[in-house]
């Protein structure tokens, strides 16, 4: 299958999984989590997107869909296209992927400026030991990011050494190892409903 056909097919399949509804918020926003691999970005973003009725774009889900349908690795192309399309059509987006790289932030900020949309950066910051424990206890790697536990552990330990999370103005910092995480998520949603 040609690359453009693969991209179109992957986009079509993924859009069927999305809930497309207007947000409860009065103003359009983009929620951008920043956190290490396996830090719990989906754990936070999924309930936030559900409570506030935001379109959640997930690179992990796209990667699985591409793998399961032999559609090549076009995750970032498809998420970029959908991101631009839904913003243009007035929807708020909850990014279910790491927004820490300067290149990715530049793309997000360009779209935010174009449509006069606020970006809400959140930091997903559990202890490193919690992430390592989580990876050690994974029975499978459905996202396809790692082949197995050993590779996952190697990659995350390398990431801890080489990659520092950017110093941004975070609206909220989540410790996903917290026993009060559900309460924190509720408080964050309340904050967004008041502000936007």
Largest beta sheet: what is the strand line-up? 2-3-1-4-5
Q: State the CATH superfamily name.
A: P-loop containing nucleotide triphosphate hydrolases
CATH architecture: 3-Layer(aba) Sandwich
Q: What is the CATH top level name?
A: Alpha Beta
Largest sheet: 5 strands, parallel
What order do the helices and strands follow? Answer: HEHEHHEHEHHEH
Which regions contain 5 or more consecutive residues with pLDDT less than 50?
Answer: none
Number of domains: 1
Structural class: alpha/beta
The total count of helices amounts to 8
Which of globular, elongated, flat, extended, rod-shaped describes the shape?
globular
Name the average pLDDT: 91
Distance between the termini: 44 Å
Measured on Cα atoms, how large is the radius of gyration? 17 Å
Give the DSSP E fraction (strand runs of 2 or more residues): 5-15%
Q: What's the CATH topology label?
A: Rossmann fold
The number of distinct β-strands equals 5
Query: Helix proportion of residues, in percent?
Result: 40-55%
Sum this structure up briefly:
This protein has 196 residues and is α/β, with parallel strands linked by helices. Helix content is 52%, strand content 12%.
Descriptive account of the structure:
With 196 residues, the chain is an alpha/beta fold. The chain has a single domain (3-195), classed as P-loop containing nucleotide triphosphate hydrolases (Rossmann fold, 3-Layer(aba) Sandwich), CATH 3.40.50. 52% of the residues lie in helices and 12% in strands. It has 8 helices and 5 strands; from the N terminus they run H-E-H-E-H-H-E-H-E-H-H-E-H. It has helices at residues 3-15, 41-52, 59-68, 75-88, 102-115, 128-136, 149-162, 181-195, and strands at residues 29-34, 55-58, 93-96, 118-124, 172-174. A 5-stranded parallel β-sheet has the order 2-3-1-4-5, sandwiched between helices. Helix 2 (41-52) packs across helix 8 (181-195). The longest helix has 15 residues, at 181-195. The radius of gyration is 17 Å and the shape is globular. The N and C termini lie far apart (44 Å). The model has no long low-confidence stretch (mean pLDDT 91).
């Amino acid at each position: 299958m040609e690359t453009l056909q693969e991209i179109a097919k992957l986009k079509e399949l993924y859009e069927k999984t999305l809930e497309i509804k207007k947000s409860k918020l009065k103003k359009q926003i983009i929620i951008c989590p920043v956190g290490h691999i396996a830090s719990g970005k989906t754990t936070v973003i999924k309930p936030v997107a559900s409570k506030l009725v935001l379109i959640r774009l997930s690179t992990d889900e796209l990667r699985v869909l591409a793998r399961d349908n032999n559609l090549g690795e076009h995750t970032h192309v498809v998420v970029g296209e959908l991101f631009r399309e839904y913003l243009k059509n007035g929807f708020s987006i909850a990014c279910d992927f790491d927004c820490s790289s300067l290149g990715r932030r530049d793309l997000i900020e360009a779209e935010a400026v174009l449509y006069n949309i606020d970006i809400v950066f959140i930091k997903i910051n559990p202890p490193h030991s919690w992430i390592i424990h989580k990876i050690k206890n994974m029975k499978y790697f459905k996202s396809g990011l790692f082949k197995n536990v050993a590779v996952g552990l190697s990659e995350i330990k390398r990431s801890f050494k080489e990659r520092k999370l950017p110093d941004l103005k975070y609206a909220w910092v989540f410790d996903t190892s917290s026993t009060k995480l559900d309460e924190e998520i509720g408080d964050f949603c309340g904050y967004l409903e008041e502000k936007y």
